[in-house]
Amino acid sequence: MLQYIYLVPLFPLIGFLINGLGWKSLPHKAGGIIASLAILASFVVSFLVFLEVKAGAQSVVSLFPFIQTGSLNIQFAFQVDALSSLFLLIITGVGFLIHIYSAGYMAHDEGVVKYFAYLNLFVFSMLLLVLGASYPIMYMGWEGVGLCSYLLIGFWYKNRDFASAGKKAFVMNRIGDLGFLVGMLLILFNYGTLSYQQFFPQLGTAADLGSTDLKNWIGICFLIGATGKSAQLPLFTWLPDAMAGPTPVSALIHAATMVTAGVYMIARSHLLYDLAPVAAELVAYIGLATALVTATIACRQYDIKKVLAYSTVSQLGFMFIALGCGSYTTAVFHVMTHAFFKALLFLGSGSVIHAMSGEQDIRKMGGLGSKMRITQITFLIACLAIAGIPGFSGFFSKDEILTAAFAHNPVLYYGALLAALMTAFYMFRLYTLTFTGTFRGTEEQAHHVHESPSSMTIPLMVLAVLSIVGGYIGLPAVLSEHNTIRDFLGLNGAVLNSKEIMEHVEALGHSKEWVLIAVSVVVALVGTIAGIALHRRPDFRTNKGLALILERKWYFDELYDAVVVKPLNAFGNILDRYADRKGIDGTVNGVGRFVRWGADRIRLVQSGQVGYYLFIMVLGITALMAVGFFIHS
Amino acid sequence: MLLLSLLLPFVFGLLCFIIKPAAKYLALFSAAALTGIGISLAFSSHAAPISFAFPWIPALGATFSLLGDTLSTILIALSGIVFLVVMLMQQNKEVEHASSFYGLLLLSIAGINGVFLAADGLLFYFFWELALIPIYFLCSQWGGDRRIAITFKFFVYTFVGSLMMLAALIYLHSQTADNSYAWADLMAVAQHMPFQLQLMLFGMMFVAFAIKMPMFPFHTWQPDTYEVAPMPATIILSALMVKMGLYGVLRWVIPFFPDAIAHFSHLIITLSVIGIVYASIIALVQTDLKRLVAYSSIAHMGLMIAAAFSLQSADAVHAGYNTASQGIIMQMFNHGINITGMWVIVQMIEQRYGTRDMAKLGGMSSAAPWMTVALVIVAFANIALPLTNGFVGEFLLFNGIFQSASPYNILFMVVAGTGVILGAAYTLRMVQKVAYGESVIGDRNVDISINEGWSLAIVITIILFLGIYPQALLNLLNG
Asked: Has residue A162 been placed in a domain?
């Protein structure tokens, strides 16, 4: 089965081509059916591949030479191992559910076929990203998902603001991409290869000529790439704006899959980060800073999708903390549980927005639970999962992250704990304001509120189940000797946690681990209760002081605008008007004018008198002879 | 075949002047034929370079000798394809004095192909001017506002450069043992020049090419000229004639003056990467589509120049036989294709909306959805998105700069790399202004016509094919 791995990205590609070429002629229903079937087919193949990988198989499948010239040899090849096969399942599995949901959500949009074409293209790119057996192929998918994200954020193209959001997302990602590119070239220059198969085995052996400095630099370059794609500080501001796209897109791209690409990249390069201590520490602290900053912002947002967007960024920060501690499998575990509950949250919010006829402001909601029971219950499950309430999936993965952080460095631990507290708080603030209390919208909206069609609620229910059970594949050591997901990822050494973190966690002992679990349970409960209690009787006064700063997102956008965007444009205008037209072009014209001025003067020399010409000629010949004399002597 | 790629456009160009009503079709036919000739030359020169020679002006020591190796023939193929796209695009357009217009275009193509093939210094110069003069007339007779002043400046500027090149060639010729202008003989002389002399001759030759490419700070003729030139001339200028400059550097400068290159390469790479950032920042604030593309092109050429001067002289003698120079050749080809696609779309926009001012455009997504698809594909190829042809070329260029012996290689690469970010910013800004928003012309549908469809189809097919399977072109380059 492994040799048929190319089928996994091929199906979505075919789906894209059919919908993309037929977007004007295909009936609206067909778009959704074709696209969903394509993803379903991919999922089936992925599942079969997964089973084989679970049984111990792995392979690099080469399709054709991509760039083969001189010293450079890059194959268009796919890497099938535990890490990629797990991501395949998440992408195609969650992706399939979101496709089904989209068929209901987008049914009335005139561009629905185009929408599904983009969605399939996105899944194709994402699959390329995780399947590539070398960095350039990963980069290909990396930029491909960026393109699709751009296209889908600006899907409702008549709104220019949406187009700006798409542009912002792409350009910010490009800043990260430059880091990725430089990192790749550093590897190519020093190790002569970009394929995982040839690069990783060189690391840490006698043949490894690279210094620790070099590895730190490569690690930092890749981290810059990851901060762009995974919306970490300082490149995170595009993700909340990306919510301009249709809500299922937010669920698939800007929560469950694309934004985890940075996590995938660092997990894939875990052997490098094991040997790059500075870069690894930086990963952890960037993660911590992001988790904290964006969690504070999420506490004061009123747009249901913005709350979820900042929450996503914050959760990605948690994953980066785990990566930085060397606990790579934990990060991947959290990618998975997060994919379930965050996709569920977004799809639930989509269901709410659908019912509210496009309203996204939670100040105008309230009491929706009674009218849309399925959405309410599934949303509640997701909130419980993300808050880290025991028994739900988020609890297990978050607890593992906190344990790793504690074992690695207490600063990380306490910071992450604070972020976890805020997570529970803002999620239950959101839940309480949306689903409980009394309705605060207009009469017309109140009349219109209804439960969504089954094509939307069924995916919600499936994801709700996954949000509960998804955590049991990664039980803490005090409960079980086997951590299923860690064992699976360790197959054939696909992803192994660093030795240090393994030892440190081991050294904690069971009693300390119980304490850690107890603390994280208390934190989750406190946050939850506070979130509910403080918002039972909501009061939307104008924010002042810190609250205003949080509502305005710590003024990051204003800062970037003032420091980068405006000066760059002003500089561009100065260069255009003064440096280019007056300065350089002025000089060129000046030379021209000088020549003409000179010519006007010299023209006077041509007086038409033969004697005068003869005189000049003699003078010239004399001069030439003099010059010749000096040269020869 | 080599000779045919010169004679065909030359003869058909003259025929255009004579058989006036058929001019457009004669040009279209020769464009198609040139494309075929170019592609078959590119394949047949793969095994061994093709050469052709007969005595030309024995008194001066000049022979009519042509050499088609992969570097040359791929550019010949490019000129055929670009010209074909132009002619398909023109089928929907009426121009005044069509016979002279197409005749001049063909003569210019003949000159350009000659530049790419000439293996004799004097012949090279001859074709160099032959390519320029028809373009001058095209711009000054069929151009837009202020055309006389702008094209005159363009002409004088590039002509001054070429005169300096001629002087250098004549001097090199005077130093040959057997009164020869042959490329190999001139190179042998140049390589063993005393250092000071080499610097001077390098400067004279390089200025001609630097103006043509154009390299920062010799670029100011370009945005103005592109703006006023009629679109076919703009395409020929930007897709092909700027490549003459880079070709000149690769063939007639880098192999010639190893010591001077070693001395000056840092300066030139520095200027090039400054030029990338400089032109990109200016592109950010342009409102005219043509000026935007012009500055974008300056930035793209800057990257190619930087990569060219990261080469070792010895590598460049057999251009095409190492990874770095293959990247440059590949990107010369790709840039030619992509910018042609960009211009075709700009021309279509101007025809439909009557303006190139981005502030007055908008909503093309509703008015011309397929045209928007084409615009988006070409735009993303322009910013080197993977799976478009732009990516592989740019990747190889960055790699070339990185692999150079210079101690500043990483710095150069990173500064040049900011062009990647700025490129995305100005290109997407343009897409946003043109395609998004409410349609400025209401519900009118103004999508692609059949001939335009063909010309864009050629461009997009190449963009995607070479993006997915770049090895097809690299195989031709691998010696």
From this structure: no
> Which residues of A are less than 8 Å from B421 in CB distance?
171, 174-175, 178
Dihedral, CA of residue A125, residue A129, residue A131 and residue A136, to nearest 10: 110
Looking at the structure of chain B, the number of domains it has is: 2
Touching B: A residues 41-70, CB under 8 Å: 64-70
Query: Best residue in B227, B271, B311, B421 to probe A by mutation, most A CBs within 10 Å?
Result: B421
pLDDT < 70 regions, chain B? 313-321, 479
Give the tens place of pLDDT for each residue, A256-307.
888 899 999 999 999 999 999 999 999 999 999 999 999 999 988 889 999 9
User: Cα–Cα distances in Å, from B396 out to B102, B255, B327, B382?
Assistant: 37, 21, 5, 15
Closest Cα to residue A106, out of A40, A156, A149, A160?
A156
**B434-475: per-residue pLDDT in tens?**
988 888 887 777 888 888 899 999 999 999 999 999 998 888
A178/B438 touch (CB, cutoff 8 Å), yes or no: no
Same domain assignment for residues A591 and A517 = no
Inspect the interface and report whether the beta carbons of A140 and B386 lie closer than 8 Å: yes
Tell me the nearest-neighbour CA distance from B445 into chain A, angstroms. 14
Contact B417 A167 (CB under 8 A): no
**A466, A576: one domain:** no
Specify if A215 maps to a domain.
no
CB-based contact, A10 to chain B, within 8 Å? no
Q: Is A166 on the interface with B (CB under 8 A)?
A: yes
Which residues in B lie closer than 8 A to residue A179 (C-beta atoms)? none
What pLDDT is attached to residue A544? 80
Q: What angle do CA A263, A264, A269 make, to 5 degrees?
A: 100
Task: Provide the whole-model pTM.
Answer: 0.91
* Residue A602 confidence (pLDDT) above 60: yes
Please tell me the predicted confidence (pLDDT) of residue A242: 86
Q: Do residue B99 and residue B71 come from a single domain?
A: yes
Q: Is the pLDDT of residue A53 over 70?
A: yes
pLDDT tens for each residue of A71-121: 788 999 999 999 999 999 999 999 999 999 998 888 888 888 999 999 999
Closest Cβ opposite residue B436 in set A142, A163, A185? A163
At what angle are helices B323-353 and B389-403 packed, to 10 degrees? 140
In a shared domain, residues A573 and A527: no
CA distance A327 to chain B (A): 31
User: Who contacts A120 (Cβ-Cβ below 8 Å, separation ≥6)?
Assistant: A12, A13, A15, A16, A19, A35, A38, A39
B189 with B290, same domain? no
d(CA B416, CA B423): 11
Shortest CA gap B383–chain A (Å): 10
Q: Mean pLDDT across the stretch A493-509?
A: 83
A589: nearest CA partner in chain B: B153
Interface check A182 vs B, CB under 8 A: yes
- A332 within domain boundaries: yes
Residue-range definition of the domain harbouring residue A605: 561-632
Domain boundary pick from B191, B221, B256:
B256
Q: Count of CB contacts below 8 A, A vs B?
A: 142
Looking at the fold, whether B73 and B189 belong to one and the same domain comes out as: yes
What is the complex's ipTM, to 2 decimals? 0.90
Residues B402, A164: C-beta atoms closer than 8 Å: no
Q: Which of A235, A238, A257 is nearest to A248 (CA)?
A: A257
Residue A232 dihedral angles phi and psi, to the nearest 5° = -100, 165
- Report d(CA A111, CA A360) in Å as an integer: 22
Q: What percent of chain A has pLDDT over 90?
A: 46
B432 and A571 in contact by Cβ < 8 A? Answer: no
Question: A275: part of which helix (H) or strand (E)?
Answer: none
Query: Is A510 found in the same domain as A612?
Result: no
- Give me the domain span that covers residue B92: 1-256
Q: Which residue has the higher pLDDT, A453 or B377?
A: B377
Whether A423 maps to a domain, the answer reads yes
Question: A-chain residues within 8 Å CB-CB of B469?
Answer: 64, 66
Q: For residue B474, which residues of chain A lie inside 8 Å, CB to CB?
A: 67-69
- Say if residue A602 is in the same domain as residue A467: no
Q: How many CB atoms lie within 10 A of CB B285?
A: 21
